[in-house]
Amino acid sequence: xxxxxAGRIPAAYAASGRRAVRVTLVAATGFFLFRYGLxxxxxxxxxxxxxxxxxxxxxxxxxxxxxxATGLRALPVCWLLVVVGTCLSVRTWSAVAGMLIVxxxxxxxAAGGPxxxxxxxxxxxxxxxxxxxxxxxxxxxERLIGTTTGLVLLIAAEALLLxxxxxxxxxDRAAHAARTAAHCATLLAVPPYALTGADSEAAREDGAALxxxxxxxxxRPAGPGLRDxxxxxxxxxxxxxxxxxxxxxxxxxxxxxxxxxxxxRAVAGLSDATASGLGxxxxxxxxxxxxxxxxxxxxxASAGPVPAGAAAGRRPPVLPPAVLRRHAAVLEIADxxxxxxxxxDLAVRGRRATLPVPPGPFWYATSxxxxxxxxxxxxxxxRRSVFFQNAVRIALALTAARLVAGVDTLPHGFWAMLxxxxxxxxxxxxxxxxxxxxxxxxxxxxxxxxxxxxxxxxHNEVYAAVLPLWMLFAFTVGPVKGVGWAxxxxxxxVALVFAQLAPSTWQLAEVRLLDVLVGSVIGAVFxxxxxxxxxxxxxxHAAAELLRRAAEIVVATxxxxxxxGPVAAxxxxxxxxxxxxxxxxxAESAYAQFQSEPTLFxxxxxxxxxxxxxxxxxLIAGHHTLWGSERLLERPPAPLxxxxxxxxxxxxxxxxxxxxxxxAALDPGSDTPAAPVPRLDPDLPGFAAEPPGAxxxxxxxxxxxxxxxxxxxxxxxxxxxxxxxxxxxxxxGDRAPRAAxxxxxx
Length: 746
Description:
Blueprint: H1 11-37, H2 41-57, H3 64-88, H4 92-108, H5 114-128, H6 140-160, H7 170-188, H8 197-208, H9 226-247, H10 258-278, H11 285-301, H12 321-349, H13 369-380, H14 386-407, H15 413-423, H16 428-456, H17 460-481, H18 483-501, H19 507-529, H20 535-563, H21 571-595, H22 615-634, H23 642-666, H24 696-714, H25 728-732
């Protein structure tokens, strides 16, 4: 298969074929070893279904070695699930209670990142299998032996058999983007102090390449741990740095001064050193210190008027407003570069990082792993989190399926639960569409199974010969052709397995069809009752809540800057940062799920996600609010003067008002008139104001508010044309191409 010339085998079939070879080899080896070699049918069953669970049902992203590492870490969890399922199967009520708790916990692990999310369906199956009668604690040892054998063989096959070439890691992407930033900063440090069109486009493309939705799932830094958080922080800081460099205008008068040049050269040096550090290079201590010193000199030179009574020799020269605007923009670039270097050092070295770590944006640097996991779980433990919604939906559906199977003594009742697990989707429309195709495929598979069992009878050697060939075919074709094919092929597969465990007749096909029908009905019921629109409704609410929280931050920050008070005098803003950070997390998770869901049938009702909204622009507005506010509040207090203070506070109020206007259009109340998302002019009157004697902090505030208005103007897709900082994804729309094959609920 691997030796086939490039282009002969479609990519989708090649990928599923490699996975099918591994699963078939492991499952067939374990099954035949225990069934015919050692005469242990229970161990044979668990060896086969363990391989199918983590190798076929699960969709763990990454290369074979990455999946093997995930499987190795999941091995103790698999043992625990088999033990708990065996012990709780003594009574229907205990099995049902266990299913509710275990089902929710496993589904909720999706909040921990793509790998736990991908493994969750397979782990669910490893609990479902032993939770059914017979209650036989004496067979626990045989069950564990079979489970361990199947999983160990699968881990070895994933690591050694048919290896795939790994894609570029997120660290590699960040390092490449940092080198691009170094190149741009070098160009901006020499005449004519501007980027070419090709350089600006390269900066935009490299920044877009760091967006999580453009990165393969296995490489996304989405986990709650220190290094994953720091790597995600690195990507965000690098994207901000590239955006600021691309937006930097030419200096007034054609000369930017030696201090600005020194800062840009130091930015280039730190960016290059950070790129090396993300590989195998040392921490960029010297480059970091150089940029920090150059930034301090530029900040002192553009500090603006000093309080009355200060020594005349210490009074800096009064600079023109155009120069102060450029100084503010260059200092923003320096701040982004410093944050990028600190985050990259944390991502590479963890708690052994050597660069200074500010306590505010890097709050996670001193927290232990259990604390960080608790933060992630607590952040999603509410009905507004799509991870919580999905976990509740699937846990209730599996619990109901286990109750029905136990009360009605449904033959092979775990097939009904397996159907509920694999056919329930995050929206009712998709669940119903999936069930229709699955029932059609199951019916076709049941007819084929009935004919096979009638013709072959009890000749187990025929089933044993056909099983590996059919398994290879099923796991190659099913994921590519869709859920109907997958269910039909799997129906025949389970018949081939159970016919070798006990004498079977054509009625086994009837039982399989009945079980899938029961599981489908239960999945449809809970898909209808529990958040039937999936992330569509939640995204609207989350984006609107994000903008409302951002409006609070804008008002508080601009008022603090206008007052010139110390950071400690603004506890409301600091507290608001936590709320806005949580709102960003919930909106990003809803947006990620929204990307994979089909458009709702029915259009523009209050419950429909608006098709004319650029949701990515709303998320960017939240990030820019956090970053800009934190940087402004970290700076030493400086009085603005009456005119500058009035201008800063007024602009902040007006930007916050625009945010509230957009949020009301995204998520209107019951008595809010329906209206499209307003088209806003990003150039509010007042952004070009130059109050007499205004310091650099004023111009930094105005630059931040102006960037937020540009973000708000991009949210309606029918609004103004995208500006130069618009990402590729924002220009081409929200939705990513959907992968072939069925999408499971994680």
